[in-house]
Amino acid sequence: MTSEFKFLAVRNWEKYQQTRPHHEKWIRSYVNKENDVEFQKLTLYQRAILDGIQRIRGELGKNIPNDVGFVERRLQVIPTERMRVGYAIRTLIERCFLVPTNQQLGFTEEIREEEIIEISPSRSIRTKQPQQNQPPEQQELLSEDKPPTIDRAKVFNSILEATFEYFRKRIDRTPQYTLTPLRKKQALARLAELWPQLQEPKEQNAIDVLKGLVDELAADDFHMGRDPKTKGKAYCDWEYIFRSPEKFQHWLQLYSGKAA
């Protein structure tokens, strides 16, 4: 969970729902939500948690606390299901259905899709003030008052294009395997986390590191399906490197250990 933020806002809530600061008995629900590509990628459990959080938001009349236990209690999740709530909420944040914020009453800034895809780290949605104790490079990425320059966005996109092309060849993927908006968003978030740690020339060093992570994946017998335990099934999608900070750190540690 993004503990630096006190609340969770439902994306585009104020655009489609009542915004009066009191309890609501009813909320609007889009009947064709299943046609949304990102919604289709959610499990039924994650969809149920999202629907439940939307109902809580309507009942409270304000953004909900960024607290897994609070969600569990309000939705009366049975004990055997509670262990999955935290992961479901993290997934909803990473896929931008929920927006971490320190604003309790509303989230008036509308987040454009291109901003989410191009520059916004999935676990650090931009707020009105830069996060404290962040390196200058990452504050530039996260600050609303000082958005990233076009050059920085171009550099990041160039790095990802080079890395993805290397990934596709190294992991033996067909041209039909593309850098989808979700894959790009995940990788941009991880690159934003990595960027302050890189030495100059940062662009080339970033490419070298990300290609090194791809090499680590390609060398892993389990993920590539060479381990007898996998019975030939491979776990080598792009997401296995970039989908979360934890996964990314895992591959970075492997790469750093060998690079050292």
Report the strand count: 3
The average pLDDT is 78
- Element order: H for helix, E for strand: EHHHEHHEHHHHHHH
C-alpha-based Rg, rounded: 20 Å
Helix/strand-derived class? Answer: mainly alpha
Basic shape: globular
Summarize the main sheet: 3 strands, antiparallel
The separation of the N and C termini measures 31 Å
With strands numbered from the N-terminus, the spatial order across the biggest sheet is: 2-1-3
How much of the sequence lies in strands comes to under 5%
Number of helices: 12
Helix fraction bin: 40-55%
Number of structural units classed as domains:
2
- pLDDT below 50 for ≥5 consecutive residues: which ranges? 108-132, 137-150
Chain oligomer state:
single chain
Provide a brief overview of the structure.
This protein is mostly helical and 260 residues long. It has two domains: 7-110, no CATH class; 139-259, no CATH class.
Explain the overall architecture:
- With 260 residues, the protein is mainly α.
- The protein folds into two domains: 104 residues, no CATH class; 121 residues, no CATH class.
- The chain contains twelve helices and three strands.
- A three-stranded antiparallel β-sheet has the order 2-1-3.
- α10 crosses α12.
- The radius of gyration is 20 Å and the shape is globular.
- The two termini are 31 Å apart.
- 27% of the residues are buried.
- About 15% of the residues have low confidence.
Question: How is the secondary structure organized here?
Answer:
Blueprint: E1 7-10, H1 13-16, H2 37-40, H3 44-60, E2 64-65, H4 68-74, H5 85-94, E3 98-101, H6 113-118, H7 136-142, H8 150-170, H9 181-194, H10 202-219, H11 239-242, H12 245-259
Antiparallel strand pairs: 1-2, 1-3
Helix pairs in contact: 3-5, 8-10, 10-12
